[in-house]
Design brief:
By secondary structure, the chain is of the alpha/beta class. It is 57% helix and 15% strand.
């Protein structure tokens, strides 16, 4: 494993300190040069021991730190190898029994492996991960990256055309509730949601009113309203792809782009590319700064608080 920046700093720093002390001691301790005879040898020996011990402590710390990182790395690798070994074992069992009845199994598994290879390659090279409803629930992993830092703001864009998906799909409701739990635990600082609509009348649906009411009257939640054409203009000005799908930014760690959001089909793309994340944060914050949208609201939006458990009630 390569040395990281901190390890290089420790080793190089120790060498620099050792050399510097030989020049600094006579400067700040002039009497050290007046020691003669046996005392001079003893003094030099003591200085050497102090510097050597300092160097040893640095090396020991560096060694222990590297050992821990290598152990964590190999633990992960061993688990991966164990899973791959199990896959090979069962795949060979399928191929050994291959006939017209179960040839389908082998061919399908080969396709799965090819797709997995491409997924891993894309994740490693492009820092992107595409998921769908057949993948494991990523909510827990994503929200665990939020630790209560100042940057741990959840920014989301929601199109009112997707209200049916948000309010009627179990995954969307579960995500909303888990996000709220992280907010209560102070792992997330704030939830900011930009709500995009086509027609001001879209804001008058019961679901839209309830969503806006919740964000306006719940601590650490807020929302801004913007027409679709204005939203597209901001994306264009920021040099981002114009999209009619929502996205969510998890602090400054991950960004999720929705491709399809239906009750029976969910397809999306995660990215941890810092350039992409930072550009979308800048665009989001620009919209947030210059947009309000309250002029499109009617006076019948309640100012009463609403529990999240009531938010999804029909």
């Amino acid at each position: 494993m390569r040395w990281n920046t901190f390890e290089k700093f420790l080793v190089y720093g120790a060498v620099i300190v050792n050399i510097s002390l030989w020049f600094l001691i006579p400067r700040f301790w002039p009497d050290a040069l007046k020691v003669e005879g046996a005392q001079s040898y003893v003094l030099n020996m003591l200085i050497w021991i102090v510097l050597a011990n300092f160097q040893i402590l640095i090396i020991v710390y560096w060694g222990l730190n590297r050992k821990k990182r290598e152990e964590r790395f190999w633990d992960v690798l061993e688990k991966l190898e164990a899973n791959l070994s199990t896959i090979r074992k069962h795949y060979n069992e399928i191929r050994a029994q291959q006939n017209d009845r179960n040839c389908l199994f082998g061919e399908c598994i080969e396709e799965f492996v090819i797709k997995l290879r491409e997924t891993v390659k894309t994740a490693a090279v492009k820092s992107q991960l595409e998921i769908n409803q057949n993948h494991f629930d990523t909510t827990r992993i994503l929200l665990n990256c939020m630790g209560g830092r100042k940057s741990d703001i959840f920014r989301a864009v929601h199109f009112l055309k997707d209200n049916i998906y948000m309010f009627n799909t179990p995954h969307a409701k579960t995500f909303f509730i888990k996000l709220h739990e992280k907010l209560i635990a102070k792992k997330i600082i704030e939830v900011q949601r930009i709500i995009v609509f086509d027609d001001p009348e879209d804001l008058n649906s019961p679901q839209s009113k309830k969503l806006i009411q919740f964000h306006r009257n719940t601590d650490c939640y807020s929302c801004k309203l913007i027409r679709r054409e204005d939203y597209a203009g901001y994306l264009n000005d920021c040099g981002l792809e114009r999209t009619t799908q929502d996205f969510g930014i998890y602090g400054n760690r991950y960004i999720y782009f929705a491709k399809e959001s239906h009750s029976n089909k969910i397809v999306g793309l995660f990215s941890q590319d810092n350039y992409i994340i930072n550009n979308h944060i800048k665009c989001f914050d620009e919209i947030w700064k210059h947009t309000n949208g309250n002029e499109y609201l009617h006076d019948d939006i309640s100012n009463d608080g609403i529990l999240i458990t009531k938010l999804f009630e029909q």
